[in-house]
Amino acid sequence: MPPLSGSPLPGTPSSRVHGVAARGCHRPDPPGNLPAGPTRFIGRGRELDALAALVERARLVTVTGIGGVGKTRVALRLATALQDRFCDGAWLAELSSLSDPALLDHTVAEALGLTDHTDRPPRAWLLEQLAGRRTLLVLDGCEQVTEACAALVKALLRGVPGLRVLAVSRRPLGVAGEQVFALPPLSGPESSELFEDRAGGAWAGAGEAERATADELCRRLDGIPLALELAAARLGTLSVTQVLERLDDRFRLLAGGAPGPLPRHQTLRTAIGWSHELCTPAERLLWARLTVFAGLFDLEAAEYVCSGPELPAESLLDVLAELVARSVVVREDTPLGPRYRLLDPVRMYGAGWLDALADGERMRRRHRDWYMGLVTWCELDWFSPRQAEVAARIEAELPNLRLALDYSLEEKGEAHIGQYLAATLWFHWTGCGRLAEGRYWLDRALEAEADNEETRLKALWVLGHVAVLQGDPARAVGALAECRETALHGGHTRALAYAEHRAGLLALVSDDLPRAEELLRSALARYQETGELNSDVLAAQAELATAVAFQGDLPGAVALCEEVREVCAAHGERRALAYALYILALAAWSGGDAVRARPLLRECLATAHAFRDLGGAVLAVELLALVTLEEAGGAGGAEEAAVLQGAAGRLRRSVGLPLSGSRHFNAPHALCERRLRELLGTRRYEACVREGAGLDLDAVVARVGCGPELPPAVPVARGPVRPPETREPAVSPATGAGETTG
Fold first, then answer.
1. How many other CB atoms sit within 10 Å of the CB of residue 426?
2. For residue 609, what are the CA distances in angstroms to 104, 349, 698?
3. pTM of the shown model
4. Distance (Å, rounded) from C-alpha 395 to C-alpha 405?
5. Which of 71, 98, 179, 358 has its CB 3.0 to 4.6 Å from that of 58, i.e. a possible disulfide?
6. pLDDT digit string (tens) for 331-358?
């Protein structure tokens, strides 16, 4: 492993971690998703040195230690210092809110920014897409899914030689070659510095006596950062002497009056319990109720889920603010606005109190109802100018949505709501490149025993759509056939329209163009009959235009796409628009107007990129290659076109749709390849293709000039998307949730 590099970070006095030039990586700005620290990082110079030395010689290093000792902060600090020596970046996968081991691979792939639209197991494409990369992966919270995490890490290290893993866990993973670093508490001087820093203004003007008392307090708290922060947060109300006296009383009580320190894990629990005792009844109640959330949550969710007669919604903000001030709740500023979370040790303590109150079941149901309402609202808002914000909101809420899905599918009598949730998230599974996880939830929902026909129908056609996009025609045919047959017998016109629509898409990608046109026209007629107008309806019309165009009627296809374009403009819809733009560009190129085709394809590619639509990106890039060849002329244009073909070829490996097997969808690629081989010769053509195969989608988008004037990418949101202003529980789909907005 090359020496570690980079300039020293504030608060990291080590010269060994930084200062030696890295070899083999000249990328000026490696990618990654490491978050900035919420507060000033203090001390840990010796620990960072020792940990860096382990990372130099081992491909798997696990940072262990008691809760609250600072494992995550130290691991992220080191990863930030090392990220510029990993050409493909340093990435954090947060696992602390993950309770289902089956979702581990999905979570890690998502954290790495990897997308795959095939029906392969997630681990297979995770290994494929990481192959050849030099990456540092930080896995935080491995104790939640230790065995699954160990199996994944073992497979990744075996299959990806350029990968290094820095794991954070309360216990080792037990993988061969693992180096374990047990993180100790802070040293005495570091403890005092942290305490004074977190005390902030309350420590201003402290004298020698106060500092001596603070040093004794830090010693009694064993240098555990979380315990120190909880104590420091009380200085606005208590003096440092009072804090020490009250903690000492509690220590003596727990130790039965015997002298000597408590075990460190008990020290932390004592500090958390002491902080809990000093909270008001309302603060203690909110603390307990907030433990039903996974990961981050916002104020509106907390107000709905946690409020009640003894904790009115209108006062909840003030109570939450007090918990933030006391370091019980952590506030984070995100693109979606302020959000909140509980640290794991604090959550565990509060969860025990929620159980003692015998209120856990009611809170979990309210939590599920809130997120059911959010999903319902976001489905409606998907067909609007807020499409990108909706995508960002659902992305941020995935940990809580998984909890809601899991609760519904595990709780007796709630499976129909699990089906409803899994199906209503269709816009996230199919519209934002989350096919693999969507397939997992839909399969699981349809296996559950539920007696609501409408929720099952919706789950069936959504599963059929997901399977079509994954390139799994057998599963698609089975799901859509069941949906169509049940809908016909039960008179469910909307479900029948959606089933025909997805069957038409399957026929389209299978080159059965007459059948595709027949099914899509029938679906559109049924949509019109029921008054349906949304993203799916526009997608069906764009797919019909594609079938018409491939059969030679370009004017008819253009007319259909111009209508789609007009409706999309009126409603701010972007996702369905991309395929209409592709057909308009295809028609322009076919008519000899390559100049007009290019901006259409640039917008199509930008949208596909924003919504992680790999199939749309492949189509746009391959047609752009033809346009580039004809616009530029000569060897220069041919070489650039071949590079684009290579880039599209790389993307194709992750596309489930059988584009290569479709004569019509593959026609631009085949024509371009034939012309390029004639112009460049086989050797030069294949060299350019290899160059293009080294480009990821981000690089391709930048290369073809999809600039900032185009719409923003999905993860960037202008503001929060809020569900309806209501304090009532979300309406259960048991009494009639169909597919009216699907």
1. 26
2. 25, 43, 8
3. 0.88
4. 15
5. 179
6. 999 999 999 999 999 999 999 999 999 9
